Amino acid sequence: MFFLLSKVLIIFIRPLCWTVGLLIWGYLTKKPERRRKLILTGLLILFFSSNKVLVNEITRAWELEPNTNAQVPETAIILGGYAEWDSHRNRVQMSDAADRLYSVVNLYRQNKIKRIILSGGSSSLTGRTKPEADYVLPILKSYGIPDSVVIKESKSRNTHENALNSAKILKDKQIKGPVLLVTSSFHMRRAMGTFVKAGVDVKPYPVHFISDYGRGYFLPDFFIPSSEALFRCDAIVKEWVGYLAYTITGKL
Q1: CB 126 within 8 A of CB 86
Q2: What backbone phi and psi angles, to 5 degrees, belong to 230?
Q3: Topology of domain 75-207, CATH
Q4: At what angle do helices 159-172 and 227-248 cross, to 10 degrees?
Q5: What is residue 9's three-state secondary structure?
Q6: How far apart are CA 175 and CA 240, in angstroms?
Q7: 3-class DSSP state of 168
Q8: Do residues 74 and 113 lie in contact, with contact meaning Cβ atoms separated by under 8 Å?
Q9: pTM for the whole structure
């Protein structure tokens, strides 16, 4: 039930969805004062959620900084959500979060890790989509990483299940912690809390940073709406709602 609700409700928490809904409501209402307030609120939400400076500063404050430690655990867990199967073109389609995978490949090539837990199933509501780990495994092999190094976990549909299933694998394989947790920086706070709640000793390895740490703002950035900022705002709002939901339901 939690998985189903999370997939349905995500549509209604997007700032752009709120903006469109408020503008339509304002247009249809017959009361002038209510119309004015609804349209103004919708436009304000659009302005703030697409403001490059404001959204970037909020994102910078939320994201965790890179792990610069020379020593990292031998085992790394990669959380899914960076690839999907394109059945029309019969190929794997990588998303902008693919840095999760590439970072682990680099760590292995640098002999910093010796074992990879590939955690990611299908997040499809119908369950007809191939599990992510199934079609990512051949990609790791193409980069020269042998099967003996990779443990595939292809049943997880969300972060909570990532944590529970990974904890079971670590226990069954008698792998002692800590382990390296690899996921997008804006997702790391929720992921860390969920894994700790599941009893896994993890060290964060945030990658895929969506904020611009160097800033470099220009005057128009303070006033002109940005589609990039709207994308970042979507990701952060979704993560905040997910963090809140996980807290309320005791998952972290």
Answers
A1: no
A2: -65, -40
A3: Rossmann fold (3.40.50)
A4: 60
A5: helix
A6: 32
A7: helix
A8: yes
A9: 0.89
Tokens for 228, please give them: 């990039």
Q: What's the Cα-to-Cα distance from 244 to each of 4, 45, 73, 194, rounded to whole Å?
A: 17, 21, 29, 12
Sequence ranges of the domains in the chain: 2-63+225-248, 75-207
Spatial separation of the C-alpha atoms in residues 88 and 79, rounded to whole Å: 25
Tens of pLDDT, residue by residue over 24-69, are 999 999 999 999 999 999 999 999 999 999 999 999 999 998 877 6
Query: Length of the chain in residues, anyone?
Result: 252
Alpha carbons 172 and 137: distance in angstroms, whole number: 21
Token pair, residue 245, equals 């939901």
* Contact residues for 63 (Cβ-Cβ < 8 A; gap 6+): 185, 186, 188, 206, 209, 210, 211
Phi/psi at 150 (5° precision)? -105, 135
User: What tokens appear for 88 in the block?
Assistant: 């029309």
Strand partners, 84: 93
